[in-house]
């Protein structure tokens, strides 16, 4: 996987530019990833990757499809279907969550992803805010 190619797809999909060295580290430490490509010219038009411990938890990241494709929803379906096959093939027996963009929520609900019924919300500690409070 070439980080430059993935970065171009992420940017085209409206995501911020990624540091290529960090992107390579992310790819190297992913449990698995799936790409969608146009056979004619081998251009990447879709991508999704999974990280985690593979035992208790796994998370799906960077679920993107080239927005200029006329059949983008079909490519998303194929990516998720292939991802599910790879999760089963590799034997991941854990909870799988997805970090998705708001525009993908309805699609993901149709693919049997549901909001956590316990009301658990994903939260992020941003690098610029890494200082811990002195008291809680």
Structure description:
Helices cover 32% and strands 22% of the residues. It has 136 residues and is of the alpha+beta class. It has one domain: Gcn5-related N-acetyltransferase (GNAT) (Aminopeptidase). It has a four-stranded mixed sheet. Strand 3, helix 3 and strand 4 form a beta-alpha-beta unit. The protein starts with a helix and ends in a 26-residue tail after the last helix.
Layout of strands and helices, then pairs:
Layout: H1 3-12, H2 20-28, E1 32-38, E2 43-52, E3 57-65, H3 72-89, E4 95-98, H4 105-110
Parallel strand pairs: 3-4
Antiparallel strand pairs: 1-2, 2-3
Which structural category do the helix and sheet elements fall into? alpha+beta
Beta-strand percent range: 15-25%
For the biggest β-sheet, the strand order reads 1-2-3-4
Q: What is the CATH class? A: Alpha Beta
Task: Please provide a brief summary of the model.
With about 140 residues, the chain is α+β, with helices and mostly antiparallel strands.
Key features of this structure:
4-stranded mixed sheet, 4 helices, Aminopeptidase, alpha+beta, globular, 136 residues
């Amino acid at each position: 996987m070439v980080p430059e190619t993935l970065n171009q797809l992420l940017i085209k999909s409206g995501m911020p530019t990624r540091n290529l060295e960090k992107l390579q580290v992310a790819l190297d430490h992913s449990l698995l990833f799936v790409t969608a490509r146009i056979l004619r010219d081998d251009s990447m038009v879709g991508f999704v990757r999974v990280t985690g411990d593979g035992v208790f938890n796994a998370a799906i990241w960077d679920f993107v499809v080239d927005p200029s494709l006329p059949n983008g929803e079909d490519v998303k379906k194929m990516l998720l279907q292939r991802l599910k096959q790879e999760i089963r093939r590799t034997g991941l027996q854990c909870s799988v969550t997805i970090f998705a963009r708001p525009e993908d929520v309805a699609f993901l609900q149709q693919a049997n992803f549901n909001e956590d019924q316990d009301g658990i919300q994903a939260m992020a500690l941003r690098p610029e805010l890494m200082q811990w409070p002195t008291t809680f």
